[in-house]
Write the structure tokens for this entry.
Amino acid sequence: MGRVNIDMTEKECVGILGCGAMGLLFAARFLDADREVVLVEKDPQTLAALQAGFVLEEDGGRREYRCSVGGDVSALAACDVVFVWVKSGDTKAVADSIQGKLRADGILVSLQNGIGNADVLRYTGYSVVAGTTAMGATRLGLNSVRAGGLGETVIGSEHGGAMQKLAALLEAAGFPLRITKSVEKAIWEKAVINAAINPLGALLGLANGQLPGNPGAAAVQKAVVEEAVAVAAFAGVQLDSPAMCAEVEKVCRATAGNRCSMLQDLDAGRFTEIEAINGYMVSLAAANGKALPVNETLCQLVHAREQTWAYV
Ligand code: KPL
């Protein structure tokens, strides 16, 4: 589908719920586009740092931003659109906490990694637009982020009015945008890419661009993709293994310098999104009487890394 041209006379208020790398990158883009932005962050240290503003590093330059910041979802009461940028494991808690706190016509947006986030958010009763983004970002500190390249953002077309409003907002903020009739497929494609890159990058401590040239890592990536493509069919999504392998390699090269989000999580002592990515696939396969040994082993290894914090 093509570009959406809507004359927005009124400037929206955009909420960002969860101020990690992606949350801050999106906030910066909307502030650059002269939108009002409200940040909500539950971690007290990050919240305190954000009260002093935040910094975006990009192309060797550095820009400082200031906007409203709150520690509770009630700060989002006036927002037209709220981007949910918490980790997948926290989406359910967000859905529970946000009920009745937004405008009745407020729009929730989930571009998070993993499968099933939008379904969880739909329980709130608000309009939810689901999608994916390939924008790269690396968190440098509590209130600083480095932009990592302009990747495509994809959103689903099924929520007519909400989708059009969101599309106009994203385009005004300069996001390369694609609108698709099959957002489920786009979410699965992104999940397969994450399943093949994130646990390997995280366990090996390698940047994305180092994975394809590492024969062991590349062989495991291929096995992950083959299993993931087989299980996608149980969700009614038809994917092609060689095409997905090529896509994984393309993303590794396009985001070569990026340390994937799972590696950033482990480095920062945060729990990872492995359960919403490889773990989701393993569970769906099990529910259909199939095993995914490679994905399951990666889940166990990433959990084992998370559990090492118990010993420090
Ligand atoms: O989405 C990503 C992530 O790090 O979570 C990729 C595409 C792998 C980029 O690093």
Summary: The CA atoms of residues 229 and 240 lie 7 Å apart. The two ends are 51 Å apart (CA to CA). The mean pLDDT is 94.
